[in-house]
Specification:
With 435 residues, this protein is an alpha+beta fold. The protein has eight helices and 24 strands. Strand 11 (231-238) and strand 12 (243-250) form a beta hairpin.
């Protein structure tokens, strides 16, 4: 190091100490998340909480006392930040933002929510509360402001960031992340995002708004629960609604061996294909799957993400199946759906069904020859259970004598049938006969 270099370093140090170069300027880095303290004596509402459910980068559900929020759950929408989406259409850096929030709160010693004012204020949805989120990494350490930390990491764009009690610090954090070119300001591709020609979204978005994607190429993730008749069923859990969403995927005869391995039951897979309405089945499905062995990371390929999963088999009452409703947030107002409509292609379990009548398909030229439709009673409710052709352990076909007049528990996939919904059972082991 020559004399001139030493002189410049000493001069820069002097200017920083003298305050002539502001914190956060180019060449320096400020930890804005730790630059302001959590003032427990201020007039704002505050509450120590624990996490119930992670939703995405800027939304988390927390357990709180009933005296704070009726029902004991506060759905927090973080103030000042707007992270990229992961709950509908998937956006660049959305997965990274969600993972960042989870990592900070999952490992926190203590979490405190703070409102902007003396009362808890709802956002425009009327269901979530606008909050500052503070977390303590270890006992005795100062609290860090997660909202500001997300901004300084470049994992969110501004959302009225300057117009709040910590507005000046929020603005400085944003400016620093831009200067340092972090994440969404980097100009670089997100390594967790697929840059193909398909629309990246969730099964929730696809199932709740299918008309918007009719005939379009889409990409989504899900757990494969069943394989039947050149199709697989996928489902995915949505924490925000506490509901599973599913879809049938027709793979036809064009996939190679490696492609078929990806579609094995129990795998979590990324599916890429075209959404269409299947008139014969009365439901939506995805088709046109592709797998190029020489380019396994091609964004147009289906891909295996993980394995070892099982169907959810959500325990469902006949009342809920026939008359239950699910409320989903819409762009302008909440939208109400029939429970069974949104449960199509997902796995459910139903217990204590009395088999009152059975119709067996009689068609020697059909692959459904010997399949059964069980009309079951559960109190005043009637449930239809449709089976594939079932066989016992000796490969002998099971007929209606096995179930007629019996009380059974069933596990299967929800499917539409003649304007209503039924449970499709694929395996004899998924029907339990009561003694």
């Amino acid at each position: 190091m020559n004399k001139m270099q030493r002189f410049l370093i000493l001069l820069l140090s002097f200017l920083c100490l003298a305050g002539m170069i502001p914190a956060g300027a180019e060449g320096t880095e400020t930890d804005y998340a730790a630059s302001i303290p959590l003032n427990f004596a201020s007039e704002t509402a505050k509450q120590q909480v624990t996490v119930k459910t992670f939703i995405d980068g800027d939304t988390v559900h927390f357990f709180v006392p009933e005296s704070v929020i009726p029902g004991g759950v506060l759905k927090a929408r973080f103030l000042a930040v707007n992270t990229p989406e992961t709950t509908g259409k998937i956006e660049e850096y959305g997965k990274k933002a969600a993972a960042f929030t989870r990592s900070k709160l999952e490992n926190a010693f203590s979490i405190v929510l703070e409102s902007e004012t003396a009362a808890w204020t709802k956002d425009t949805t009327g269901d979530r509360y606008l909050t500052w989120v503070w977390y303590q990494e270890a006992e005795g350490q100062p609290y860090r402001n997660l909202n500001i930390e997300i901004l300084q990491q470049g994992l969110a764009i501004a959302n009225s960031s300057a117009n709040n009690r910590y507005g000046e610090v929020c603005t400085q954090a944003i400016d620093q992340s831009r200067t340092r070119k972090l994440n969404i300001y980097s100009g670089q591709k997100d390594p967790d995002f697929y840059y193909g020609d398909a629309i990246e979204l969730t099964l929730k978005e696809l199932r709740s708004n299918p008309e918007a994607y009719n005939g379009k190429k889409v990409a989504f993730n899900g757990i494969i629960t069943m394989n039947s008749n050149n199709s697989v069923y996928l489902e995915s859990y949505d924490a925000e609604t506490d509901h599973y969403f599913g879809l049938a995927v027709y793979y036809g005869y064009n996939l190679n061996g490696k492609g078929m391995e990806i579609l094995s039951v129990g795998n979590e897979a990324r599916i890429v294909g075209t959404l269409q309405y299947y008139e014969a089945g009365g439901t939506w499905q995805v088709s046109g799957l592709n797998y190029r062995m020489m380019k396994p990371k091609d964004p147009g390929n289906i891909q295996k993400l993980s394995d070892g999963h099982k169907p959810a088999y959500v325990l469902t009452t006949p009342e809920t199946f026939l008359h239950g409703k699910v409320i989903l947030p819409g762009d302008e107002s909440d939208v109400e759906f029939d429970y069974a409509r949104l449960a199509v292609a997902t796995s459910i379990e139903m217990k204590n069904l009395y088999v009152e009548n059975i119709h067996t398909t009689q068609d020697a030229d059909s692959s459904s020859n010997g399949a059964m439709t069980l009309t079951c009673k559960a109190g005043e409710h009637t449930i239809q259970v449709r089976t594939a052709v079932l066989y016992d352990e000796n490969r002998t076909r099971i007929d209606e004598n096995a179930y007629l007049g019996k009380t059974i528990d069933v596990k299967g996939i929800v499917e539409p049938f003649e304007g209503a919904y039924q449970i499709k059972v694929f395996l004899a082991s998924d029907i339990t006969i009561h003694p």
